[in-house]
Here is the input.
Amino acid sequence: MSELRRRATRSVAFSVWGPIARDDLPGLSSRVCALFLANPGTEMLCHVVNVSPDAVTVEALARLQLVAKRSCITVRLRDASAELLALVRFLGLADVLSE
Here is the structure.
C-alpha cells in the first residue's frame, strides 16, 4: 500500500479532560501539536467525555481544530456530552467541531 493511502486511512485517538482553564490553552495546544507531528494522519479522534461544557472548553477545541487544519488533519469529537454539543451549536461552531 502506498504511503499516501496508509496516511489517508489512519486515525489516532487522544483524550482531553477538564475542566480546562484559559491558562491551560497554550500547553494543551503544544501537546496536541506534538501529537499531530508524531502521528501524521488525516483524522484525529478527540475524546472529550470528561470536559466541562463551557466557553473555554469550546475555545480550546476550536484552537485544536485550527492547528489541525493547518496540518491537513481533521479532528472529530468523540463522547461529547449533549451540553457540550449544544454549546458548540449555540456558538456557531457546529461546522468546525463535529462528531
User: Anything to note?
Assistant: The radius of gyration is 13 Å. The longest strand covers residues 11-15. The mean pLDDT is 84. The chain has one domain: 3-90.
